[in-house]
């Protein structure tokens, strides 16, 4: 397994997330992914992502779980 800094460089070069290299691709619809890739990343989001990437892996998984739970709650509220 490459070190975190090498993993980030490789992920940037391949234009994928370091998590995708580490754990494999997630099942995300092409439409959602396409929309996300065309939105500019705001400075606050970029800073949040950098802080996230600096966390230990176990804490990053916790954050991903929280984001997924909030996303599901939003879908339920919208009736999707």
Topology:
Blueprint: H1 4-14, H2 18-23, H3 30-38, H4 43-54, H5 57-78
Q: How would you explain this protein's 3D organization?
A:
The chain has 80 residues and is mainly α. The chain has a domain at 1-39. 75% of the residues lie in helices and 0% in strands. It contains 5 helices and no strands. It has helices at 4-14, 18-23, 30-38, 43-54, 57-78. The longest helix is centred in the C-terminal third of the chain and has 22 residues, at 57-78. The protein is globular. The mean pLDDT is 81.
Would you summarize the structure shown here?
The protein is mainly alpha-helical and 80 residues long.
Q: Which regions contain 5 or more consecutive residues with pLDDT less than 50?
A: none
- Gross morphology: globular
The averaged pLDDT comes out at 81
| Residue share in helix | over 70%
Label this structure with key terms:
mainly alpha
